[in-house]
Design brief:
614 residues; alpha+beta; Threonyl-tRNA Synthetase, Chain A, domain 2; BirA Bifunctional Protein, domain 2; 18 helices; 34 strands; 24% strand
């Protein structure tokens, strides 16, 4: 058995030990237990208990688990009939439901831990609890969960357990968790006043002034790069009639993740109205089945197709690159949303490029060069992943084979054969894709960039261009994003830099602190000199104490704080406090500082530079 498989067995077995501990603490007759799978760093188990589990219970449960393990009980697998299983778990409604859902003839296996605890499980598990003696574990948390992830079903208590083969591995993981908490973008975002969330708009960020400045800086960067590579930006309606999504195929494949504006039944007859309005007044009947149903767009693709189709095209026009930065909406389950990492409203650095088949290679190579430039600017590394035809693919299989062959050849040339991973069956329903998985400061991977080859949407929308000989041919569409969701990418950057952003992307690059109000006039001059070069500057012209002003800007992690007094005003110099540096630079000519900051901003430097005293 491989090491990873052994770890899974240990963790799954510890989930059973945890369930048994909960039974013994709360009393078997008081506990309903649901499921308890292993997960990436341990396991969890879902229960209905007579009272909420709190942190005060964690040590009690852990101690009981150690006690159970020390009993060195044998584990016994048994295969039973459906009838016997229902009898055995007759007082456990979640187990009963799982058993009833099994198809006829399915092998039902149970595992006994000792003689007094049994669980419905496929296994495998350890043979004796003694094998868990060296395992290191610690309860992580207890939270709410819905049975089978359905918000309309029972609410359960989920107890999470960290579980590792040794104390040293657990210790290292706990140190990683501590670092992750310190880098948590939700916490840092609040500290830096970048964004907030409200329950009235779940999964939709409110970008505050400082955060929106940073957001706009990234949008500007993306637009600059795309402009150099020949992209043209368009903008399209945020909601479209259902007809568009039927043509594109999204209605069939994605409607459950779309925000709908239901249509209204036509007519004014009483039969078309429901008398449930205020004061018994009739109100219209709404239905997503009506022809006038609208949907907020989850993707930009169909609108780009319409923009291409608006007039006749020639092979001489191709490639045509339509980038879009419009707002998108995708419906998520409440339990899946996670700060900026998983939202319901976001923007992408989206693009749809229309090419001939002969242009595919050069175009995708250029897209990858854009990804290389953008990720390198942030000091980010990535790996490529090739996703092939899914089960619910649309279109002709021969077209798919050709598309996959094209992408594989490009990947082989760019990264070398074997220099990328193949993710079988994970392509989009309309075409295969290359996903760019970036690695963050904590070693986690995130799918941000994507390049998707599409022969289907041009067919659905009847797109054509006139070829050399005058015949009409269908273009190929390349879907492309590099940042992916700006929201997710910003969340990653917050955690990567721990809020200490490179100067060029900070909401404000320089803060100005006049020591007294008599120095405000010079401070205004310094501010104007920097702003003239496009540097984002904030200043405090109040009569507050100098240290109070400096502390305020340090809280926001401004890269440079300029302190201006009599000497600076007389000599047209600045004194510089640099973020993360205990030293202060004095007697820096204003012109030299402006030149240095402008150069760093233009080069999008990752590091700060302390000016040298002159």
């Amino acid at each position: 058995m491989e090491k990873e498989e052994i770890l899974q067995v240990y963790r799954h077995s510890l989930a059973h030990i945890m369930a048994k501990a909960v039974f013994e603490i709360f009393g078997k007759e008081n506990v309903q237990y649901a499921i308890g799978p292993e997960i990436a760093d341990g396991c969890y188990y879902d229960f209905v208990l007579p009272r909420p589990v709190t942190e005060d219970d964690f040590k009690t449960i852990e101690n009981k688990m150690h006690e159970i393990i020390k009993r060195r009980e044998d584990w016994r697998r048994e295969e039973i009939t459906k009838e016997k299983a229902l009898e055995l778990f007759q007082n456990q409604r979640f187990k009963t439901e799982l058993i009833n859902d099994l198809p006829e003839g399915e092998v039902i296996s149970i595992y006994w831990t000792g003689d007094d605890f049994v669980d419905l499980c496929r296994g495998p598990h350890v043979e004796n609890s003694q094998m868990l003696m060296s395992a290191a574990f610690q309860i992580k948390s207890a939270s709410g969960a819905y049975w089978r992830g359905d918000e309309k079903r029972d609410q359960l208590q989920r107890i999470y357990l960290y579980a590792f083969p040794s104390k040293d591995e657990l210790k290292k993981h706990l140190a990683w968790v501590k670092e992750a908490l310190e880098r948590d973008h939700k916490k840092i975002g609040a500290q830096l006043d970048l964004f907030m969330f409200q329950e009235t708009a779940p999964g939709m960020a409110y970008w505050l002034p400082r955060g929106w400045k940073m957001y706009q800086t990234l949008l500007k960067f993306s637009r600059e790069v795309q402009e150099r590579h020949g992209y043209s930006e368009i903008s399209a309606p945020l909601i479209n009639n259902k007809k568009l999504w039927l043509i594109s195929g999204h209605w069939a494949h994605y409607v459950n993740n779309m925000f709908l504006v239901p249509g209204i039944t036509k007519g004014t007859d009483a039969a078309d109205l429901i008398g449930n309005g205020e004061g018994g007044a009739a109100v219209p009947t709404y239905s997503p089945l009506m022809d006038d149903t609208m949907a907020a767009k989850p993707m930009n693709c169909p609108n780009a197709m319409l923009a291409f189709k608006r007039k006749s095209r020639s092979y001489k026009d191709l490639p045509i690159r339509y980038s879009e930065m419009d707002v998108l909406h995708r419906k998520e389950k409440s339990g899946q949303m996670n700060g900026l990492f998983r939202v319901q409203e976001f923007r992408q650095d989206d693009d749809h490029t229309f090419v001939t088949e002969e242009q595919i290679k050069d175009e995708i190579m250029d897209v990858i060069s854009i990804a290389d430039e953008i990720y390198r600017t942030f000091g980010i590394t990535y790996r490529a992943e090739f996703s092939t035809r899914p089960e619910d693919f649309m279109g002709d299989i021969e077209v798919w084979n050709r598309a996959e062959a094209n992408l594989k050849a490009i990947l082989d040339e760019k990264y070398g054969e074997g220099g990328y991973e193949i993710n079988e069956g994970d392509g989009a329903f309309y075409g295969p894709k290359i996903d760019l998985q970036i690695k963050d400061a904590l070693g986690r991977e995130w799918q941000c960039g994507t390049v998707q080859l599409d022969f289907q949407l041009p067919h659905n929308f009847g797109l054509t261009y006139a070829d050399h000989d005058g015949s009409l041919k269908m273009p190929v569409v390349i879907h492309r994003a590099i940042f992916g969701s700006f929201e997710r990418f910003i969340g990653i950057l917050i955690e990567n830099f721990k809020g200490d952003f490179p100067m060029w992307m900070c909401p404000y690059e320089v803060a100005i602190v006049p020591i007294r109000t008599s120095h405000n006039e010079y401070a205004e001059k310094v501010k104007a000199a920097l702003e003239e070069k496009g540097i984002r500057v904030e200043a405090d012209f109040t009569d507050a104490n100098m240290q109070t002003k400096i502390k305020k800007f340090k809280v926001f992690k401004d890269p440079y704080i300029l302190v201006l007094g009599d000497k600076e005003a007389e000599t047209e110099t600045v004194s510089v406090n640099m973020r993360g540096c205990k030293e202060q630079a004095h007697n820096i000519p204003l012109s030299a500082f402006v030149e240095l900051i402008t150069k760093m901003d233009r080069e999008r430097s990752l590091e700060l530079i302390l000016p040298k005293e002159q």
